[in-house]
């Protein structure tokens, strides 16, 4: 039986980060991945030789000394990643159809405040107070900076109120409220359900800067692959744990894999969906309260996605990486409600992609969707879904293409749909139980599974543990790393490459 210091389960950005942190601190690590290759949601896929991103398109925090910049520095992979910053004056554009108007939101907090004050001159005080509150939450949250993550995490008052409640106190302006909640698309929870604090923590990175990464999520996966190899991390794909054995004093001694192979380790860190974690834990070690808590977690929103490419002879000189979100109206709560029947929110991401011998102008479009929308086909699997499902997909693709052409009429007859994906596609390719984009819904007052689990040498990390998005997912692994490793050594590891 092979013996490791640590087993990391799941090789998305959380698992790769976790494995690297441990191995960089001298531990012998096994990384297990259920799918055929590592990377999880950040992996790209290629169709007809054209690269498309599935679960990673843009991020905040890549500016110098930003949180992601620091994380990549500590992991010694920053030099392998090339950020492509979006246009500072219009990084996030929102077209609100009911208003017939597009709002261009820059980055840089002062820039955003000034732009909002231009759009809503009567709301200057609400705008200042909103950004003041966001800043205050982030200032008192240790996990917003690797330098402060060692302090005790104390919940802020804003952890106990929803975004909706705060906005209602600040302003009556529907459009301003919609724009201040619009980044809910980046975590998939209604303003009336997310705490103001978690909304602030999610948005802060994107308020500072918005960037894509050259070669998308694959750049991250390749950088990690290199470092995982440099640090002798053993990677096994198409593997998962089927049984925990030799449990003494609430400590697991043996881990049995789907291949029948058995391994032992001091710790096992699960960076997978909490409902998948619950399936692994033996029933006798799980209290009723724990099981109920996990079962009650709801899913965040997911997406129906269309992946398209512009004809190679189509010229558009100012075609650039950009993000346009289309909201049919200002009611963001209803847009994130599975029961909503109107036109969904749609995010259109344009990108220029270079392969070895060709350059492509790609368009990825993401319409909010939920597992409820595909419930009748939930028992089917990729590759063998019924005709009615194909019809559903076709009609959704056509509707999305029509919406793209409405805002970009120049693409009519110039755009080819290369692929599409429903919430079921995400579920099956990413081995997530519900196909949601961001794991569990982060609801106000909810206590996520984070850190130590009911068995003493088992830990939870990952996007459902702290916050979603690549920053929240990676940060969750730093927090667990701090628990597992000797604190003094861990501090030295963090500050070795970081400027103080
Ligand atoms: C359509 C879409 C768009 C997104 N856009 C962005 C974006 O632009 N920017 C951003 O920051 N974030 C974005 N996100 C969110 C981001 O991708 C995630 O928050 C983050 O990548 C999650 O990382 P993770 O490692 O926690 O989980 P995952 O990436 O889901 O990784 C979990 C891994 O565990 C594996 N696994 C599951 N069960 C087991 C098991 N039992 N044993 C072994 N392995 C298992 C899975 O196969 C998977 O590889 C998007 C997500 C989606 C779906």
How would you characterize the overall build of this protein?
With 500 residues, the protein is α/β, with parallel strands linked by helices. It folds into 3 domains: 223 residues, 3-Layer(bba) Sandwich (FAD/NAD(P)-binding domain); 123 residues, no CATH class; 110 residues, no CATH class. The chain has 15 helices and 19 strands. The strands form 4 sheets. Strands 1, 2, 9, 10, 11, 12, 18 and 19 form an 8-stranded mixed sheet that branches. The chain has a 7-stranded mixed sheet with strand order 7-6-14-15-16-13-17. It is globular and about 65 Å long. The two termini are 43 Å apart. Flavin-adenine dinucleotide binds next to helix 1, strand 13, helix 13 and helix 14.
Low-confidence region ranges: none
Look at the structure and give the mean pLDDT: 96
Number of strands: 19
Tell me the helix content.
25-40%
Q: Radius of gyration from the CA trace?
A: 22 Å
CATH superfamily of the largest domain: FAD/NAD(P)-binding domain
Count of spatially separate domains = 3
| CATH fold-level label of the largest domain | FAD/NAD(P)-binding domain
Largest sheet: 8 strands, mixed
Could you give the topology of this structure?
Layout: E1 2-9, H1 13-24, E2 29-32, E3 44-47, E4 50-53, H2 67-74, E5 83-85, E6 92-96, E7 101-105, H3 109-119, H4 124-139, H5 163-170, H6 174-181, H7 196-208, E8 211-213, H8 216-230, E9 234-236, E10 241-248, E11 251-257, E12 262-270, H9 274-280, H10 288-296, E13 302-310, E14 322-327, H11 332-335, E15 346-354, E16 359-369, H12 387-407, E17 415-421, H13 423-430, E18 451-452, E19 458-460, H14 469-484, H15 487-497
Bound molecules: flavin-adenine dinucleotide.
Flavin-adenine dinucleotide (FAD) binds next to helix 1, strand 13, helix 13 and helix 14.
